[in-house]
Design a protein that fits this description.
It holds the Pfam family Pyridoxal_deC. GO terms for molecular function: carboxy-lyase activity; pyridoxal phosphate binding. With about 500 residues, this protein is an alpha/beta fold. The protein has 14 helices and 11 strands. The chain folds into 3 domains: about 10-35 and about 40-75; about 105-355, 3-Layer(aba) Sandwich (Aspartate Aminotransferase, domain 2), CATH 3.40.640; about 365-495, Alpha-Beta Complex (Aspartate Aminotransferase, domain 1). Bound molecules: pyridoxal-5'-phosphate. Pyridoxal-5'-phosphate binds near residues 143, 145, 241, 268 and 309.
Length: about 500
Protein backbone atom coordinates (compact mmCIF):
# COMPACT_ATOMS: atom_id res chain seq x y z
CA UNK A 1 0.00 0.00 0.00
CA UNK A 2 1.45 3.41 -0.91
CA UNK A 3 1.45 5.93 1.90
CA UNK A 4 1.30 9.70 1.65
CA UNK A 5 0.33 12.67 3.80
CA UNK A 6 -2.57 14.17 1.86
CA UNK A 7 -6.09 14.11 3.35
CA UNK A 8 -7.97 10.85 2.89
CA UNK A 9 -11.13 12.84 2.46
CA UNK A 10 -10.52 16.25 0.90
CA UNK A 11 -14.09 17.45 1.54
CA UNK A 12 -13.82 16.79 5.26
CA UNK A 13 -10.41 18.43 5.35
CA UNK A 14 -11.78 21.46 3.54
CA UNK A 15 -14.51 21.86 6.18
CA UNK A 16 -11.94 21.62 8.98
CA UNK A 17 -9.69 24.13 7.21
CA UNK A 18 -12.52 26.63 7.01
CA UNK A 19 -13.24 26.06 10.68
CA UNK A 20 -9.59 26.77 11.50
CA UNK A 21 -9.66 29.96 9.45
CA UNK A 22 -12.89 31.14 11.13
CA UNK A 23 -11.41 30.35 14.54
CA UNK A 24 -8.45 32.65 13.94
CA UNK A 25 -10.49 35.41 12.31
CA UNK A 26 -12.79 35.41 15.37
CA UNK A 27 -9.74 35.41 17.62
CA UNK A 28 -8.30 38.52 15.97
CA UNK A 29 -11.62 40.30 15.67
CA UNK A 30 -12.38 39.82 19.37
CA UNK A 31 -8.85 40.28 20.62
CA UNK A 32 -9.66 43.18 22.94
CA UNK A 33 -12.32 41.20 24.78
CA UNK A 34 -9.68 38.90 26.24
CA UNK A 35 -6.93 39.40 28.82
CA UNK A 36 -3.69 40.59 27.25
CA UNK A 37 -1.85 37.65 28.81
CA UNK A 38 -2.85 34.46 30.57
CA UNK A 39 -0.37 32.20 32.30
CA UNK A 40 -0.52 28.75 30.63
CA UNK A 41 -2.61 26.42 32.79
CA UNK A 42 -1.14 23.32 34.44
CA UNK A 43 -3.33 21.27 32.14
CA UNK A 44 -1.98 23.04 29.07
CA UNK A 45 1.65 22.66 30.13
CA UNK A 46 1.11 18.98 30.90
CA UNK A 47 -0.23 18.53 27.38
CA UNK A 48 3.27 19.20 26.06
CA UNK A 49 5.07 16.64 28.14
CA UNK A 50 3.72 13.57 26.38
CA UNK A 51 5.38 10.66 24.63
CA UNK A 52 5.99 10.80 20.87
CA UNK A 53 2.68 9.72 19.27
CA UNK A 54 3.02 6.71 17.00
CA UNK A 55 -0.45 7.01 15.53
CA UNK A 56 -2.02 10.13 14.07
CA UNK A 57 -5.41 11.65 14.92
CA UNK A 58 -8.07 13.45 12.92
CA UNK A 59 -7.15 17.01 12.09
CA UNK A 60 -10.34 18.08 13.91
CA UNK A 61 -8.99 16.59 17.15
CA UNK A 62 -5.62 18.30 16.68
CA UNK A 63 -7.41 21.57 16.01
CA UNK A 64 -9.38 21.10 19.26
CA UNK A 65 -6.07 20.77 21.09
CA UNK A 66 -4.81 23.97 19.51
CA UNK A 67 -7.98 25.80 20.51
CA UNK A 68 -7.83 24.57 24.09
CA UNK A 69 -4.16 24.28 25.00
CA UNK A 70 -2.32 26.72 22.74
CA UNK A 71 -4.42 29.62 21.48
CA UNK A 72 -5.43 31.02 24.93
CA UNK A 73 -1.83 31.24 26.10
CA UNK A 74 -0.22 33.49 23.50
CA UNK A 75 2.39 36.17 24.25
CA UNK A 76 -0.29 38.84 23.89
CA UNK A 77 1.40 41.01 21.27
CA UNK A 78 -1.73 40.97 19.09
CA UNK A 79 -3.61 42.72 21.94
CA UNK A 80 -3.97 46.53 22.00
CA UNK A 81 -2.83 46.62 25.66
CA UNK A 82 0.46 44.91 24.86
CA UNK A 83 3.25 47.49 25.22
CA UNK A 84 5.92 45.28 26.63
CA UNK A 85 8.67 44.91 24.13
CA UNK A 86 9.23 46.10 20.58
CA UNK A 87 6.92 43.48 19.08
CA UNK A 88 4.62 43.82 16.10
CA UNK A 89 0.94 42.92 16.31
CA UNK A 90 0.46 41.01 13.05
CA UNK A 91 -2.57 41.47 10.80
CA UNK A 92 -5.30 39.22 9.41
CA UNK A 93 -3.89 39.93 5.93
CA UNK A 94 -0.45 38.75 7.01
CA UNK A 95 -1.99 35.60 8.45
CA UNK A 96 -3.54 34.75 5.07
CA UNK A 97 -0.20 35.33 3.35
CA UNK A 98 1.48 32.88 5.75
CA UNK A 99 -1.07 30.24 4.79
CA UNK A 100 -0.58 30.86 1.07
CA UNK A 101 3.21 30.70 1.43
CA UNK A 102 2.96 27.45 3.37
CA UNK A 103 0.76 26.04 0.62
CA UNK A 104 3.38 26.86 -2.01
CA UNK A 105 6.11 25.61 0.31
CA UNK A 106 8.80 27.36 -1.73
CA UNK A 107 12.40 27.00 -0.74
CA UNK A 108 13.77 30.50 -1.22
CA UNK A 109 17.49 29.80 -1.05
CA UNK A 110 17.56 30.38 -4.79
CA UNK A 111 16.76 29.03 -8.25
CA UNK A 112 14.49 30.22 -10.99
CA UNK A 113 11.03 30.75 -9.50
CA UNK A 114 8.82 33.73 -8.76
CA UNK A 115 9.41 33.88 -5.00
CA UNK A 116 12.93 35.17 -5.70
CA UNK A 117 11.45 38.00 -7.79
CA UNK A 118 9.08 38.87 -4.93
CA UNK A 119 12.03 39.11 -2.53
CA UNK A 120 13.89 41.37 -4.99
CA UNK A 121 10.78 43.53 -5.25
CA UNK A 122 10.82 44.00 -1.47
CA UNK A 123 14.51 44.96 -1.56
CA UNK A 124 13.78 47.56 -4.26
CA UNK A 125 10.80 48.96 -2.34
CA UNK A 126 12.76 49.27 0.87
CA UNK A 127 15.68 50.86 -0.98
CA UNK A 128 13.20 53.44 -2.26
CA UNK A 129 11.61 54.00 1.16
CA UNK A 130 14.94 54.37 2.98
CA UNK A 131 16.71 56.38 0.27
CA UNK A 132 19.15 53.66 -0.84
CA UNK A 133 20.17 53.25 -4.52
CA UNK A 134 17.68 51.20 -6.59
CA UNK A 135 20.16 48.35 -7.09
CA UNK A 136 20.88 47.94 -3.36
CA UNK A 137 21.06 44.33 -2.26
CA UNK A 138 18.65 42.92 0.30
CA UNK A 139 17.88 39.62 1.95
CA UNK A 140 15.31 38.36 4.45
CA UNK A 141 16.63 36.87 7.67
CA UNK A 142 14.93 35.90 10.93
CA UNK A 143 15.43 39.29 12.59
CA UNK A 144 17.60 42.32 13.15
CA UNK A 145 19.93 40.37 15.47
CA UNK A 146 20.98 38.22 12.53
CA UNK A 147 20.96 41.14 10.08
CA UNK A 148 23.38 43.02 12.38
CA UNK A 149 25.57 39.93 12.50
CA UNK A 150 25.61 39.70 8.69
CA UNK A 151 26.61 43.37 8.56
CA UNK A 152 29.61 42.65 10.73
CA UNK A 153 30.76 39.91 8.36
CA UNK A 154 30.38 42.10 5.28
CA UNK A 155 32.14 45.05 6.93
CA UNK A 156 34.92 42.78 8.23
CA UNK A 157 35.58 41.32 4.77
CA UNK A 158 35.50 44.81 3.29
CA UNK A 159 38.03 46.05 5.86
CA UNK A 160 40.50 43.31 4.97
CA UNK A 161 40.06 44.00 1.26
CA UNK A 162 41.79 41.41 -0.90
CA UNK A 163 43.27 39.55 2.07
CA UNK A 164 40.47 36.95 1.81
CA UNK A 165 39.39 36.60 5.40
CA UNK A 166 36.97 33.84 4.38
CA UNK A 167 39.89 31.65 3.35
CA UNK A 168 42.54 32.73 5.81
CA UNK A 169 40.59 33.34 8.99
CA UNK A 170 41.12 36.26 11.31
CA UNK A 171 44.35 35.33 13.03
CA UNK A 172 46.24 35.30 9.73
CA UNK A 173 45.32 38.93 9.13
CA UNK A 174 46.96 42.12 10.38
CA UNK A 175 45.47 44.45 12.98
CA UNK A 176 42.63 43.99 15.45
CA UNK A 177 39.33 45.31 14.07
CA UNK A 178 37.41 47.72 16.32
CA UNK A 179 33.71 48.62 16.09
CA UNK A 180 31.79 51.52 17.67
CA UNK A 181 28.22 51.87 18.88
CA UNK A 182 26.49 53.83 21.61
CA UNK A 183 25.93 52.51 25.10
CA UNK A 184 22.27 52.27 24.21
CA UNK A 185 22.92 49.84 21.33
CA UNK A 186 21.09 46.53 21.40
CA UNK A 187 23.00 43.65 22.97
CA UNK A 188 22.90 41.75 19.66
CA UNK A 189 25.64 44.10 18.36
CA UNK A 190 27.91 42.85 21.11
CA UNK A 191 26.81 39.30 20.35
CA UNK A 192 27.63 39.82 16.67
CA UNK A 193 31.20 40.73 17.66
CA UNK A 194 31.37 37.50 19.65
CA UNK A 195 29.94 35.38 16.84
CA UNK A 196 32.19 36.95 14.21
CA UNK A 197 35.25 36.02 16.25
CA UNK A 198 36.16 39.69 16.73
CA UNK A 199 35.59 39.68 20.47
CA UNK A 200 33.07 41.73 22.44
CA UNK A 201 35.86 43.73 24.08
CA UNK A 202 36.60 45.23 20.65
CA UNK A 203 33.22 46.89 20.52
CA UNK A 204 33.54 50.37 22.00
CA UNK A 205 30.35 51.45 23.72
CA UNK A 206 30.38 55.22 23.43
CA UNK A 207 28.56 57.37 26.04
CA UNK A 208 25.23 58.90 25.12
CA UNK A 209 23.86 62.39 25.79
CA UNK A 210 20.74 63.50 27.68
CA UNK A 211 18.58 62.36 24.78
CA UNK A 212 20.35 59.00 24.94
CA UNK A 213 21.95 59.51 21.52
CA UNK A 214 25.62 58.78 20.88
CA UNK A 215 28.10 61.57 21.72
CA UNK A 216 29.97 62.35 18.51
CA UNK A 217 32.94 63.99 20.25
CA UNK A 218 33.48 60.88 22.39
CA UNK A 219 33.23 58.73 19.29
CA UNK A 220 35.87 60.74 17.47
CA UNK A 221 38.16 60.58 20.50
CA UNK A 222 37.77 56.81 20.79
CA UNK A 223 38.60 56.27 17.12
CA UNK A 224 41.71 58.45 17.39
CA UNK A 225 42.86 56.63 20.53
CA UNK A 226 42.43 53.23 18.86
CA UNK A 227 44.32 54.31 15.77
CA UNK A 228 47.12 55.69 17.96
CA UNK A 229 47.29 52.30 19.71
CA UNK A 230 47.77 50.52 16.36
CA UNK A 231 44.26 49.04 16.22
CA UNK A 232 42.01 49.06 13.12
CA UNK A 233 38.67 50.85 13.42
CA UNK A 234 36.33 49.39 10.77
CA UNK A 235 32.68 49.90 11.68
CA UNK A 236 30.24 52.38 13.22
CA UNK A 237 26.82 51.06 14.20
CA UNK A 238 24.26 53.82 14.64
CA UNK A 239 20.87 53.07 16.16
CA UNK A 240 17.60 54.45 14.82
CA UNK A 241 15.22 53.75 17.69
CA UNK A 242 17.03 52.20 20.65
CA UNK A 243 15.31 49.26 22.22
CA UNK A 244 15.10 50.79 25.70
CA UNK A 245 13.89 54.32 25.00
CA UNK A 246 13.51 54.77 21.22
CA UNK A 247 16.40 57.27 21.03
CA UNK A 248 17.88 58.01 17.62
CA UNK A 249 21.58 58.58 17.06
CA UNK A 250 22.50 61.63 14.90
CA UNK A 251 22.77 59.56 11.73
CA UNK A 252 23.91 62.40 9.50
CA UNK A 253 26.81 63.19 11.79
CA UNK A 254 27.69 59.50 12.13
CA UNK A 255 27.77 59.30 8.33
CA UNK A 256 30.20 62.25 8.32
CA UNK A 257 32.50 60.54 10.83
CA UNK A 258 32.35 57.23 8.97
CA UNK A 259 33.11 58.99 5.70
CA UNK A 260 36.05 60.99 7.01
CA UNK A 261 37.48 57.99 8.88
CA UNK A 262 36.81 55.55 6.02
CA UNK A 263 34.66 53.21 8.16
CA UNK A 264 31.62 51.10 7.30
CA UNK A 265 28.46 52.84 8.53
CA UNK A 266 25.65 50.49 9.54
CA UNK A 267 22.30 51.46 11.05
CA UNK A 268 20.44 49.18 13.43
CA UNK A 269 16.97 50.40 12.57
CA UNK A 270 15.07 47.35 13.88
CA UNK A 271 11.87 49.32 14.23
CA UNK A 272 12.98 52.96 13.99
CA UNK A 273 14.20 52.87 10.37
CA UNK A 274 10.59 52.46 9.30
CA UNK A 275 9.75 55.89 10.70
CA UNK A 276 10.87 56.83 7.17
CA UNK A 277 7.42 55.69 5.97
CA UNK A 278 5.82 58.64 7.77
CA UNK A 279 6.47 62.04 6.14
CA UNK A 280 6.13 63.64 9.59
CA UNK A 281 8.69 61.35 11.27
CA UNK A 282 11.11 60.93 8.38
CA UNK A 283 13.29 63.94 9.34
CA UNK A 284 14.17 62.12 12.59
CA UNK A 285 16.07 59.46 10.64
CA UNK A 286 17.83 61.83 8.29
CA UNK A 287 21.23 60.42 7.38
CA UNK A 288 19.92 56.86 7.17
CA UNK A 289 20.09 57.21 3.39
CA UNK A 290 23.87 57.65 3.67
CA UNK A 291 24.47 54.35 5.50
CA UNK A 292 26.37 51.48 3.89
CA UNK A 293 23.82 49.05 5.28
CA UNK A 294 20.73 48.93 7.46
CA UNK A 295 19.04 46.19 9.47
CA UNK A 296 15.33 46.31 10.26
CA UNK A 297 12.34 44.14 11.02
CA UNK A 298 9.12 43.82 9.05
CA UNK A 299 7.72 42.00 12.09
CA UNK A 300 7.88 45.03 14.40
CA UNK A 301 6.43 48.35 13.18
CA UNK A 302 5.07 46.89 9.91
CA UNK A 303 3.22 44.02 11.62
CA UNK A 304 4.26 41.34 9.16
CA UNK A 305 3.84 38.02 11.04
CA UNK A 306 6.97 36.68 12.74
CA UNK A 307 9.64 36.33 11.60
CA UNK A 308 10.76 38.79 8.96
CA UNK A 309 14.03 40.66 9.50
CA UNK A 310 15.82 42.36 6.61
CA UNK A 311 19.38 43.30 5.73
CA UNK A 312 19.83 45.98 3.06
CA UNK A 313 23.28 46.80 1.64
CA UNK A 314 24.21 49.72 -0.60
CA UNK A 315 27.08 47.93 -2.41
CA UNK A 316 25.68 44.70 -3.81
CA UNK A 317 29.10 43.36 -4.72
CA UNK A 318 30.41 43.79 -1.17
CA UNK A 319 27.32 41.98 0.11
CA UNK A 320 27.76 39.04 -2.24
CA UNK A 321 31.51 38.76 -1.64
CA UNK A 322 30.91 37.91 2.01
CA UNK A 323 28.66 34.90 1.37
CA UNK A 324 28.58 33.59 -2.22
CA UNK A 325 29.98 30.08 -2.68
CA UNK A 326 30.48 27.82 -5.66
CA UNK A 327 29.42 24.39 -4.46
CA UNK A 328 28.47 21.95 -7.21
CA UNK A 329 24.81 21.79 -6.16
CA UNK A 330 24.59 25.58 -6.37
CA UNK A 331 25.80 25.72 -9.97
CA UNK A 332 23.88 28.17 -12.14
CA UNK A 333 22.53 26.92 -15.45
CA UNK A 334 21.89 29.03 -18.55
CA UNK A 335 18.26 27.86 -18.66
CA UNK A 336 15.72 26.00 -16.56
CA UNK A 337 15.08 25.89 -12.81
CA UNK A 338 18.75 26.40 -11.91
CA UNK A 339 19.06 29.61 -13.96
CA UNK A 340 19.63 33.01 -12.37
CA UNK A 341 22.42 35.26 -11.25
CA UNK A 342 22.45 36.26 -7.58
CA UNK A 343 20.37 34.02 -5.34
CA UNK A 344 19.43 34.77 -1.72
CA UNK A 345 21.85 32.04 -0.59
CA UNK A 346 24.63 34.27 -1.99
CA UNK A 347 23.61 37.02 0.44
CA UNK A 348 23.64 35.22 3.78
CA UNK A 349 24.39 31.84 5.37
CA UNK A 350 20.84 30.44 4.99
CA UNK A 351 20.31 27.94 2.20
CA UNK A 352 16.86 26.54 2.98
CA UNK A 353 14.64 29.56 3.56
CA UNK A 354 10.92 30.20 3.80
CA UNK A 355 8.98 32.55 1.54
CA UNK A 356 9.08 35.48 4.00
CA UNK A 357 8.84 37.91 1.12
CA UNK A 358 5.23 36.89 0.45
CA UNK A 359 3.88 38.10 3.78
CA UNK A 360 5.82 41.36 3.45
CA UNK A 361 4.59 41.84 -0.12
CA UNK A 362 1.02 40.94 0.88
CA UNK A 363 1.12 43.42 3.76
CA UNK A 364 2.53 46.28 1.69
CA UNK A 365 0.18 45.63 -1.25
CA UNK A 366 -2.86 45.38 1.04
CA UNK A 367 -2.27 48.51 3.09
CA UNK A 368 0.12 50.64 1.04
CA UNK A 369 3.13 52.47 2.43
CA UNK A 370 1.00 55.51 3.36
CA UNK A 371 -1.36 53.70 5.72
CA UNK A 372 1.49 51.75 7.28
CA UNK A 373 3.22 55.08 7.92
CA UNK A 374 0.01 56.46 9.45
CA UNK A 375 -0.13 53.54 11.89
CA UNK A 376 3.47 54.21 12.88
CA UNK A 377 2.63 57.87 13.44
CA UNK A 378 -0.41 56.93 15.50
CA UNK A 379 1.70 54.89 17.94
CA UNK A 380 3.94 57.93 18.43
CA UNK A 381 0.84 60.05 19.15
CA UNK A 382 -0.27 57.48 21.72
CA UNK A 383 3.17 57.68 23.33
CA UNK A 384 2.79 61.47 23.52
CA UNK A 385 -0.61 61.04 25.17
CA UNK A 386 0.89 58.78 27.83
CA UNK A 387 3.90 61.07 28.24
CA UNK A 388 1.65 64.10 28.78
CA UNK A 389 -0.30 62.30 31.48
CA UNK A 390 2.84 61.13 33.29
CA UNK A 391 4.37 64.60 33.08
CA UNK A 392 1.48 66.05 35.15
CA UNK A 393 1.01 63.05 37.43
CA UNK A 394 1.63 63.35 41.18
CA UNK A 395 2.62 59.72 41.49
CA UNK A 396 4.56 58.86 38.33
CA UNK A 397 7.57 60.49 36.65
CA UNK A 398 9.21 60.19 33.24
CA UNK A 399 12.55 58.43 33.23
CA UNK A 400 13.71 59.16 29.65
CA UNK A 401 12.84 61.57 26.83
CA UNK A 402 10.17 60.29 24.42
CA UNK A 403 11.55 60.40 20.88
CA UNK A 404 9.25 57.97 19.07
CA UNK A 405 6.85 55.45 20.58
CA UNK A 406 8.53 54.36 23.82
CA UNK A 407 7.69 55.86 27.20
CA UNK A 408 9.88 54.94 30.18
CA UNK A 409 8.67 56.04 33.56
CA UNK A 410 8.72 55.19 37.23
CA UNK A 411 7.01 55.91 40.51
CA UNK A 412 8.14 59.03 42.36
CA UNK A 413 10.21 58.24 45.48
CA UNK A 414 10.54 54.61 44.42
CA UNK A 415 14.31 54.69 44.73
CA UNK A 416 15.06 51.03 44.14
CA UNK A 417 12.30 50.60 41.54
CA UNK A 418 10.54 47.93 43.56
CA UNK A 419 7.12 49.55 43.12
CA UNK A 420 7.66 49.77 39.35
CA UNK A 421 8.58 46.10 39.33
CA UNK A 422 5.52 45.14 41.34
CA UNK A 423 3.16 47.18 39.15
CA UNK A 424 4.42 45.56 35.94
CA UNK A 425 4.03 42.02 37.29
CA UNK A 426 0.57 42.85 38.65
CA UNK A 427 -0.65 44.23 35.34
CA UNK A 428 0.58 41.11 33.55
CA UNK A 429 -0.99 38.70 36.00
CA UNK A 430 -4.33 40.50 35.96
CA UNK A 431 -4.22 40.44 32.17
CA UNK A 432 -4.94 44.20 32.11
CA UNK A 433 -1.90 45.50 30.27
CA UNK A 434 1.56 44.30 29.35
CA UNK A 435 4.23 46.97 29.74
CA UNK A 436 7.74 45.73 30.44
CA UNK A 437 10.46 46.56 32.87
CA UNK A 438 13.83 47.85 31.86
CA UNK A 439 16.78 49.21 33.81
CA UNK A 440 17.70 52.84 33.24
CA UNK A 441 20.78 54.18 35.00
CA UNK A 442 20.74 51.14 37.24
CA UNK A 443 17.12 51.49 38.41
CA UNK A 444 14.09 49.52 37.14
CA UNK A 445 11.71 51.57 35.00
CA UNK A 446 8.31 50.79 33.51
CA UNK A 447 8.57 50.71 29.73
CA UNK A 448 5.59 51.17 27.43
CA UNK A 449 6.68 50.47 23.84
CA UNK A 450 3.59 51.33 21.84
CA UNK A 451 3.90 49.55 18.52
CA UNK A 452 0.51 47.97 18.03
CA UNK A 453 -1.69 49.40 15.26
CA UNK A 454 -4.69 48.46 17.42
CA UNK A 455 -3.71 50.66 20.39
CA UNK A 456 -6.04 53.68 20.54
CA UNK A 457 -6.55 56.64 22.86
CA UNK A 458 -9.11 54.67 24.90
CA UNK A 459 -6.45 52.02 25.52
CA UNK A 460 -3.96 54.59 26.76
CA UNK A 461 -6.65 56.00 29.04
CA UNK A 462 -7.45 52.52 30.35
CA UNK A 463 -3.73 51.89 30.87
CA UNK A 464 -3.52 55.05 32.97
CA UNK A 465 -6.39 53.84 35.17
CA UNK A 466 -4.84 50.40 35.55
CA UNK A 467 -1.53 52.01 36.52
CA UNK A 468 -3.17 54.17 39.16
CA UNK A 469 -5.07 51.24 40.63
CA UNK A 470 -1.99 48.99 40.59
CA UNK A 471 0.05 51.63 42.39
CA UNK A 472 -2.63 52.04 45.05
CA UNK A 473 -2.70 48.28 45.62
CA UNK A 474 1.09 48.07 45.68
CA UNK A 475 1.30 50.83 48.30
CA UNK A 476 -1.50 49.47 50.48
CA UNK A 477 -0.31 45.90 50.44
CA UNK A 478 3.38 45.89 51.19
CA UNK A 479 5.00 42.94 49.53
CA UNK A 480 7.95 40.71 50.14
CA UNK A 481 9.65 41.21 46.80
CA UNK A 482 12.12 38.43 47.37
CA UNK A 483 15.52 38.61 45.76
CA UNK A 484 15.61 41.43 43.21
CA UNK A 485 16.82 39.46 40.26
CA UNK A 486 18.13 41.66 37.46
CA UNK A 487 16.06 40.93 34.36
CA UNK A 488 18.19 39.70 31.50
CA UNK A 489 17.07 42.40 29.09
CA UNK A 490 18.79 43.72 26.00
CA UNK A 491 21.02 46.75 25.94
CA UNK A 492 22.19 46.56 29.53
CA UNK A 493 25.66 45.39 28.81
CA UNK A 494 28.56 47.48 29.95
CA UNK A 495 31.93 46.50 28.61
CA UNK A 496 35.11 47.31 30.39
CA UNK A 497 37.14 49.73 28.35
CA UNK A 498 40.41 48.36 27.15
C1 LIG B 1 14.29 44.33 18.39
C2 LIG B 1 15.61 44.94 18.20
C3 LIG B 1 16.71 44.19 17.80
C4 LIG B 1 16.64 42.70 17.65
O1 LIG B 1 15.81 42.36 16.57
P1 LIG B 1 15.24 40.88 16.45
O2 LIG B 1 14.32 40.97 15.29
O3 LIG B 1 14.53 40.61 17.74
O4 LIG B 1 16.38 39.97 16.23
C5 LIG B 1 17.90 44.85 17.56
N1 LIG B 1 18.00 46.17 17.70
C6 LIG B 1 16.96 46.94 18.10
C7 LIG B 1 17.16 48.41 18.23
C8 LIG B 1 15.73 46.34 18.37
O5 LIG B 1 14.69 47.09 18.75
Amino acid sequence: MPVNLDPENWDEFRAESHRALDMMLDYLREIRERPVWTEPSEEARARFKRELPQEGRDVSAVLEDFDRYIKPFATGNTHPMFMGWAQGAGTPAGMIAEMLAAGMNSNCGGRNHIAIDVERQIAAWMAQALGFPPDASGVFVTGTSIANFLCLLVARDQAYGDKDVRLNGLCALPGQLIAYASREAHNCVRQAMELAGLGARHLRLIPSDERRAIKISDLRRAIAADRAAGLRPFLIVGTAGTVDTGAIDPLDRLADVAHSEDLWFHVDGAFGALAALSPALKPLVKGLERADSVAFDFHKWLHVPYDAGFFLVRDKEAHKRAFAANAAYLTRAPRGLAAGDTWPCDLGPDLSRSFRALKAWFTIETFGAKRLGQCIEQTCRMAKRLEAWIAQSDAFALRAPVTLNIVCFGVKDDEDGSLAREIVMELHERGEAAPSLTILDGIPAIRAAIINHRTEARDIDAFIEFLDAALRRARKEPHDFGALVEPHGPGKTRLSED
